[in-house]
Amino acid sequence: METKKQKESGKKPKQSINDMTESLQRLQADFENYKKWVDSKKANDLVKGKIELIGKMLPLLDQIELAIQNKESENFVKGVELIFSEFKTILEKEGLEHIECVGEKLDPYFHEVMLKEKSDKEDDIVLDELQKGYKIGDVVIRHSKVKVSKK
Fold first, then answer.
1. What φ, ψ does residue 33 adopt, rounded to 5°?
2. Using the 8-state DSSP alphabet, how is residue 105 labeled?
3. Do the beta carbons of residue 127 and residue 149 sit within 8 Å?
4. In angstroms, rounded to a whole number, what is the distance separating the alpha carbons of residues 56 and 97?
5. Structural domains in the chain plus CATH codes
6. Cβ distance 144 to 111 under 8 Å?
7. Whole-number percent of the chain with pLDDT over 70
8. How many CB atoms lie within 10 A of CB 4?
9. Less crowded by CB within 10 Å, the N or C end of the chain?
10. Count of CB atoms within 10 A of residue 133's CB?
11. 79 contacts: CB under 8 Å, gap ≥ 6
12. Cβ pair 111, 126 in contact under 8 A
């Protein structure tokens, strides 16, 4: 039994089902190709990001090599300080921020308590930073390892 629409188009039900099946198969193939393209684009973007970051770090590699070659020189310490400064600048340009903590109230989101020390300050005030913590935006890359006060 044919529907009115099928009579008007002159197609039989089996032919209509075959057409829909073919359309569905083409749509599925297109979607699979799209997924492959997205995966490929992600991989390419990751490689591009690595290349860009490594490109920014190559001058540091050159400076470290030069500093090592001149380790007997009085300029060795100055060279290492220059390398540190340039490396820090590269990371800051990428969005890295130091988590300020000394004198602040303990915040477990940013700080990891390593030591507690008796103090005349109120409880849980950061007295010392044992290892620097860093974040990019609101994402903590590494928590500050701290010493806090206790009464």
1. -65, -40
2. B
3. yes
4. 18
5. 1-94 (3.90.20.20), 97-151 (2.30.22.10)
6. yes
7. 93
8. 7
9. N
10. 20
11. 63, 66, 67, 70
12. yes
Q: What tokens does 86 get? A: 């340039």
Burial of 8-27, coded b for 16+ CB within 10 Å and e otherwise, reads: eeeeeeeeeeeeeeeeeeee
Contact 84, 117 (CB under 8 A): no
SS3 (DSSP) at 76: helix
Q: What are the tokens at 108? A: 């477990």
Residue 66 tokens read as 């030069």
pLDDT-derived band of residue 7, with 50, 70 and 90 as boundaries?
low
CA distance 112 to 129: 10
Bridge-partner residues for 136, per DSSP?
A: 96, 139
Please tell me the distance from the alpha carbon of residue 111 to that of residue 103, in angstroms, as a whole number.
12
Residue identified by tokens 């390419």 is 44
C-beta of residue 106 within 8 angstroms of C-beta of residue 145: no
